[in-house]
Amino acid sequence: MNELSRAQIRDLMAQVLKNQDKELPADDAAQLREIGFRSLDFSELALRVEDETGEELNFDAPGLRRIATVGDVLDFLVELQQQ
Amino acid sequence: MTVATPRPPVAYPEPAGVDNRLVVGGAALTWRTLPTPALPDPAAVLARSAAHALAAARQHAVHGTELLLSTASRVDEAMRAELQDAGFTVTVLDDEGGHPSAPARPRAAEPGRLWLLTSGSTGRPKRVGHTLDTLTTVRADQPDRTWLCPYAPGTYAWWQVVTLSLTQPGQHLVVVEPDELDDWPAVAAAHGVDAASGTPTFWRRTLYRDAAALARVPLRQITLGGEPVDQAILDQLREVFPAARLSWIYASSEVGASIVVHDGRAGFPVDWLDREAPGRPTLSVRDDELVVTSPYHGAGLAGPVRTGDRVQVVDDRVLITGRLDSDEINVGGSKVSAGVVRGVLTGHPAVAWARVTGRRAPVLGRMVVAEVVLARVAEASDGDAHPVDRPAASPPDEAALVRWCADRLPEHAVPRRIRVLTEIPVKETLKSDV
Known about the structure:
heterodimer, A: mainly alpha, Non-ribosomal Peptide Synthetase Peptidyl Carrier Protein, Chain A, B: Rossmann fold, GMP Synthetase, Chain A, domain 3, eight-stranded mixed beta sheet, ANL_N_sf (chain B)
């Protein structure tokens, strides 16, 4: 199992934003809406995680939840890898 | 135990093109001097080489025996059994002659019948019935040409080139075997090829491998077909051959050749839709699908035929973007045409080829992703590089290609992951999986 750490996922998230000339704040409590991180960006990040680990994420497993902050995104993807 | 049917008496007059030149496997022949094998009737012939396939076609033209022609590699064990069940003697044709396997259920032959196996882009190949006459779509007198035939024997595109040469004097053929395909420009230049027909993938691959070698082929007619034709490939070919006639053809085993466009632009004029004329196909659009009513249809396919090809009207042109079942990508409820995205990517000066697909993703269901092959940087450094060779700038990275798309496409249609491949993948049908 080739799992990415929270910090590694954070780097990938920064890359997604950087490609759009946006910056990822250091604060995990930063609101996604304010930094302009949207559904398409979230999906891209998930694909990047898959490409890094070579494993498919099971998107159907976890229930719906509210993803509003940078921390929510990172927690969710860390958790998805463990499904 | 199999029965080798003796050669039946000549039933048809020699075709008008019988003295046209054929270059195959390096040997110069004519249709008349091509050795013709004795074939069972009905026969499913699996040709080992291009020469054997031409021989089977000539045999059919002269004797009218029922024939399904293909290459051994396109017919698997299950398909062989299916053909034997359908009454065909399956015959592998090689230098030693025919090697027949008897049909499971022998039946009487249907004189003059030709069968095509569709390319199988919709799943399993299926048989479509034609005759030499319904496969012959070029009937007006043509200027003398020496045609390159790069297609797999027995496909609709192969029969188009072959029937042209069989039925029209002055239409010569230079046939390349699959193992010669990468070096076809050298073969073509050596034999004076001035007309060539190929898929966009075939042309892209040729431009990518060696545009300078291509430029040495004295082409006066360039034809594209078999896959969606985008503006970028037409423009690149126009750059190399400014004086050639540049045509694209929409044709399929089911509806025959239905659209022929010579103006060097992708798509066809919107005012061709729903125009009825005797002896000509009628083109319509239903729910984004191209519908064709064609006089060149296969057996049992009279009337409007849903082609399974997706179309999109952009300004005054109707663009054929790809297969309906694979072209449409649903990104969070927004529909994206893979063909349109592919067109944007191949429009980038550094992109030689692109494949666009949907990939499973959270939240949105699917996301647009792509694979590309970058154009080779010009090797010449003397400032005399060929026009299609690219300037020796650093190649674009994923982010640069994503930005190129973001400037030209709605947000949900932008491929977010773009993988760079080192070689253009190509199937035996000369199509990519696009």
